[in-house]
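Q: Could you fold this chain for me?
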Amino acid sequence: AGGVETVLAAFGMLAEDRPELSVDVVGSGPLSRPLHARAAYLGVAERVRFRGPLSARAVRTAVHGCAVLVLPYRDGDLAVPTAEVALVEA
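A: Sure. Below is the predicted structure, expressed as structure tokens.
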């Protein structure tokens, strides 16, 4: 299971108590379809927006507009330079 699945699971646990929260998932890949299915299974699909790949400018706008940034990372999932750029941007 990938890091985004873990974020969705955590969101599913607290979504009922925090109706004001939502999740935006930026990017795409081979796990896109299973992640959509997971959000539906957890009952949070209407509060999870899968935005797909975004331009650097759109990513910056998304980051600046969020209250919390979660960068799911597991060894081997993400190139370290990409993670460093995302954290610096945040």
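A (continued): The mean pLDDT is 85.
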